[in-house]
Write a structure and sequence with these properties.
It is built from six helices and no strands. The protein has 174 residues and is mostly helical.
Length: 174
């Protein structure tokens, strides 16, 4: 029971008790108390209003719970669908990757198996480049050096000064 119903019920019981031998002052007192609680409304209005409010609250709560259940079901379905789609994409990508790896593996195995052909190519090149004894062709090819032999002391001196922090512009050797 709500508080308003309890108050109305208590006042109703008191009115029944007093109705038999009540003085007009006591009935007026109870009527005034009831009027102050309910304003200009009647007792039936108060009871009916509380019942209507309770029904409205109950209906609103029920509707809200139903919308939450519907939203939950929709969200769970969306998550499930997304999960299935993601797993399918992952499986497809895995199959593509495995296929690519198999292709590369087969190509590498074929390359390894063709190394025997490289040995024959090497022997063929040796026979082509085989120089007869006494040939002067190698004497005609001049040796080329990246750094001329006389320039090494100069280069090491420059590099040594460059790596010393105290030697910026100084010609003094420490």
């Amino acid at each position: 029971m709500t508080i308003a119903k309890e108050v109305v019920y208590a006042l109703h019981q008191r009115l029944k008790e007093l109705a038999v031998d009540a003085t007009p002052d006591k009935i007026a007192y109870l009527a005034k108390a009831l009027e102050s609680i309910a304003g200009q409304s009647t007792v039936l209005d108060i009871v009916q209003m509380t019942d209507e409010k309770l029904k409205e609250l109950l209906n609103a709560a029920t509707n809200h719970l139903q919308s939450l259940d519907t939203s939950k079901a929709n969200n769970l379905k969306a998550i499930s669908d997304s999960e299935k789609e993601s797993l399918k994409k992952i499986n497809d990508q895995e199959l593509k990757s495995l296929s690519l790896l198999d292709t590369r593996k087969d190509a590498n195995i074929a390359a390894i198996n063709s190394t025997a052909d490289l040995g024959t190519i090497k022997n063929t090149l040796k026979t082509i480049n085989d120089l007869p004894n006494g040939s002067s062709i190698m004497k005609e090819v001049k040796n080329r050096n990246m750094i001329e032999p006389g320039s090494l002391p100069f280069l090491f001196g420059v590099l040594n000064r460059y790596n010393r922090p105290a030697a910026k512009g100084d010609d003094k050797m420490m």
